[in-house]
Amino acid sequence: MNGSEASWSEGAAAEVVEEFLDRGLLSAATERRVRALRSRGDDVAALEEVLKD
Questions:
Q1: pTM for the complete prediction?
Q2: Which three-class secondary structure state does DSSP give residue 13?
């Protein structure tokens, strides 16, 4: 488990990512990457993409 996984639970990561998606705060490219990660069930990696944007 890396540091980001230890810091964020899947549930908390999913909530933050969903908020960014709902508010349209991401670039189109980041939104595509985030949606692809979420479709695989990896909300922590999706959150990392959100935070990079």
A1: 0.75
A2: helix
Count of the separate structural domains present in the chain: 1
Could you tell me the residue range of the domain that residue 31 belongs to? Answer: 3-52
Structure-token match 């949606």, residue found: 35
Could you read off the pLDDT of 30-47 as tens digits, one per residue? 999 999 999 999 988 999
Residues counted in the chain: 53
Rg (CA), the chain: 10
Query: Kindly report the CA angle at 47 between 42 and 37, in degrees rounded to 5?
Result: 35
Beta strands in the chain (DSSP E): none
Do 37 and 45 touch, CB atoms closer than 8 A? Answer: yes
- Among 36, 38, 45, which Cα is nearest to 18's? 38
